[in-house]
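Crash report, auto-generated. Payload:
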Amino acid sequence: MAVETHGTGTLPQIKGVKDVPYDELFVSGHRTCQGCESALVMRHMVKASGPRTIVLGSTGCMYVANTTYYTTPWVVPWMHTQLGASGSAALGTAAGLKVLMRKGKIKDEKINVIAFCGDGGGADMGLGAISATLTHKDYNCLVLLYDNESYANTDIQLSSQTPYGAVTTFSPSGSKKRLMHTRWKKNVPGMLAAGHPESRYIAAGCAAYAVDLMNKIRKALELGGPTFVHTLDPCPKGWDYHPQYSQELGHLAVECGIWPLYEVMDGVCNLTGPTRQIAEGRKKRKPVYEYLKRQGRFAHFADEDVEHFQHEVDKMWTEWLIPGVIPFTVPAKDQTILKIDKKPLHEQKTA
Amino acid sequence: MSDPKETSITVEVVYRGIFQKTLAQRICRSIVLAARKRGHTGTAFARYGDSPERNGVPAKQFAVVAINDLELEASMAKYEPAVVDVSIAVDDTLVKGVESWAWYGRQPIWKPVKKDGFVLVTSDKSPDDVLAQTDTAERPYSLVVVPGGASFAGLWVFKDDHTDYRVLGALAKIAPDWVRLDDVMALIKEQTKDESAVQSARYGYDAAKMRQVKAGEGTSGHEKLQFTKPGWTTMRTGIVVDARKPGERNPQYKKYTARTLRPVVNFDTCIKCTMCWLDCPDECFEVTPEGHYEVVYQACIGCGICAQVCPVKDCIVMVDELRFEDNEDKWQFWKKDRDGYNKWFEAKSGVSADPKVRTPAARQEGSGNANPSANPTSASGGDD
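Recovered output after restart:
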């Protein structure tokens, strides 16, 4: 039975803004904030995947705000799934479709399965399920994590994706203690890429770079198997800035080097967009202050906090093996790891 | 000061979600605290249906004040007060209607206000100008305008521009039996130790302009948007909702009442770059046969991203929503009558339609209501 596990080549790469499909599969009338970048991610996601797509959404803004009181903005089939369940829902749906096709109950065709989750649903609660899904290489499904750096739906609580020092409902700045949140943001796409070598595609994107993001989603769906895309979404409500600056903050996050854009495809890591330009020295990284000063959630920062933030980001670029991806390096004196004999086992000489 | 004739009073504050959440909270709490000074009792609460609030989407909070605890409990035994004595709109564009969630419809600002009640609006405009954008009254009420633009802030940084004190002062003028100016001023003095804050309350009391509105006054120009909510008996198994058809927009939730500024487009300078359409989170642009992008005002919520990402100066200009009576798309207008359209564009936006003409920087003044530059957390915000 010809049930393809891997992509069929129906989603070509988008060459530029003029090449973006016009069809809207996620339409107006969703109760998101003004300037909601996550809503834009949803829109770009289904624009890229096309009409033959099933979308599953775990609890979060993109569930509660979008499908407000018995209405929906989705043109494609959409179903709610529980907070930590995006990975399992994606896998189950993909497996179900595969069985129905094998038994001849539905037409054997390429149907994209995308499950989305927020940073709370994906990076905190659902991380285990996503990790498990990424090891099931026989099923085609994409897990998209839209990361607005807090539990934004319930009015901004701290998540593992909240950046260092930011104010949330759980980390208010006080007169005795300025910073209540001093943990560094968890590196989710890097962790998943490092931990799941059989997943063919894992990427970090941002809707401010729309074509780059759509192409990443298309690549993930095209390559097939379980794949993962993580997007950073500026959130006017929780980050506390005027909604009109959503795109600008997305650009700044990338240009300051805080959110590197990259993809890990079939075991090869590529930096994309401005991140690539920065890495190649064609563009200078902006100071993180440019990014921090635009947001009310960092309004309490003292100079030393900005310095610390800058220091951590600098470390990512100067000390990590791959900036933003692999957070360690090899000792300068001992380069053994880089000189490993990479010949096949039978060709290797014994010492 | 006489004793109140009624046993309780209900005040609602209609506000822009998140932007004015703290402001509404402060007003409602202060009403109760000021009334307690006079020996009344009361409570302040937010409407559960608004939670979680979304930036710009109209929301409501309430203050109920009663002569004793028993009367307070009696008036509290409801989820959302259906009838209020005073409705306070802390942004004047809210008089164009309130649509808080799906199936809610677009409700006139005076909808819950009882006969001969009060609608209190903060605005730089005159009562007549505000009334011109308010739905036709079904029963008489008094329109009170408190001078001042809409005070917008963020979730974490509150803009302490005394809007709450001015509103409290104005409230003391219209409901002296419940909230006295002396009590308001004493409360503010206790809370802030700031004489200028106390004087702001007095200014609100003195400068509030009142206008009696008779039934039938107002505009009939706004869209009627009313629904019969589907009950649980009509819902389908598994709460299945029909998907939207391609090309359709959600008819049960239009969301345009979230708009305080609206984008107007200069089609002559548009370079058809697609950026506004591409970056709009609310899918509100339609491509025209000639490749322009026109705003569908039935769907636009006025976030301003399009104006921000547009590479051409003043091609998309954000303009105060109160300057518009209609909700019609404008590309056909431009197509039929370019000069007429450009004159309309210039009149509304205060920007020249001719890109060669330099527009003075002061142009923002007219569209200053809910102006992003007034937001303390925007462009030059943070710890600058």
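Post-recovery validation: Chain B touches chain A through 67 residues (CB under 8 Å).
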